[in-house]
Design a protein that fits this description.
single chain; alpha/beta; Rossmann fold; Alpha-Beta Plaits; nine-stranded mixed beta sheet; four-stranded antiparallel beta sheet; 8 helices; binds magnesium ion
Length: about 260
């Protein structure tokens, strides 16, 4: 008898299943893929990630299989993702849902106090100049302070950023992988997925969202509640339904899925 049977209730979340046990029908599934740590390996600095030619081919292949119901959902600025994925013409959400590209058009995702945001960004940039052990990453709708090379700075970075936001100013502090981020309240990857699902090529399909970060957990929760499939990349606590070890194993799984577009009519 296990512990939970003994005490009479089950834990609220079950351990995620191995992604290898899942098969998804391409004609009925909309794919939402985070970028850093999901489609590509995390690098020492945000600008050092590499996208291989094979990754580009995979996105092409997925676009065909899923009849263009494939979107990249990243915390990065949209223009950065566009730079990394120059041959990808599909849907991209940047800035945690703040920016959207669909069918070649760009849309803003949020209305916020841009003047205040500029002040916050400047303060964070100054902090990273004063203490070069941290790296500031400017996002058009937010700012991130990375302490990847110096984990001991976590509480220092947190406390500094916490001083810059308060309940009323429309911004919030969010924890990410070896980083903290300030962004406008009310934008999220979940909201971005919800919005993209209204586009014709996505509508009515089952959502599959894969992400690696703490910031992806709320989107996992939303996807789970909306009958979708959630996939956590890597270790760590998660509410995702499936788990796979790394971007490499995720891409291997994506390549292994049956290709409905090739099936004879
Ligand atoms: Mg990520």
């Amino acid at each position: 008898m296990d512990y939970y049977t003994l005490i009479g209730f089950a834990p609220e979340t079950e351990a995620p299943e191995d992604l290898g046990t899942l098969a998804v029908p391409a004609h009925d599934t909309a794919l939402f893929l985070d970028f850093d740590g999901t489609l590509v390996d995390i690098a020492e600095t945000p600008s050092a990630v590499t996208v291989s030619a094979r990754d580009g081919l995979l996105l092409d292949q997925l676009g065909r299989r899923h009849a263009n119901a494939v979107a990249i959902i990243s915390g990065r600025n949209l223009h950065e993702i566009e730079k990394f994925l120059q041959d990808f013409s599909g849907t991209i959400s940047g800035g945690h849902g703040a920016e959207l590209r669909h069918a070649g058009e760009h849309f803003p995702g949020i209305d916020c106090d841009f003047e205040r945001l500029e002040h916050i960004k400047n303060a964070v940039m100054e902090f990273a100049i004063i203490d070069p052990r941290v790296i500031a990453e400017d996002k058009s709708f937010g700012i991130v302070l990375h302490f990847r090379q110096h984990p001991e700075l976590e509480s220092k970075v947190h406390d500094f950023l916490a001083c810059l936001v308060n309940e009323e100013d429309g911004f919030e502090l969010q924890s990410a992988k070896m980083a903290f981020e300030i962004k406008p309240k009310g934008i999220s990857k979940a909201k971005a997925i919800e919005r993209i699902m209204q586009f014709e090529e996505f509508a009515g399909r089952t959502i599959l969202f894969a992400g690696d970060d703490e910031t992806d957990e709320t989107a996992f929760g939303w996807v789970n509640a909306h009958g979708g499939l959630s996939v956590k990349i890597g270790d760590g606590p998660t509410i995702a339904q499936y788990r796979t070890a790394s971007p490499t194993t995720l891409k291997k799984w994506l390549r292994s899925q049956p290709d409905a577009s090739r099936r004879e009519a």
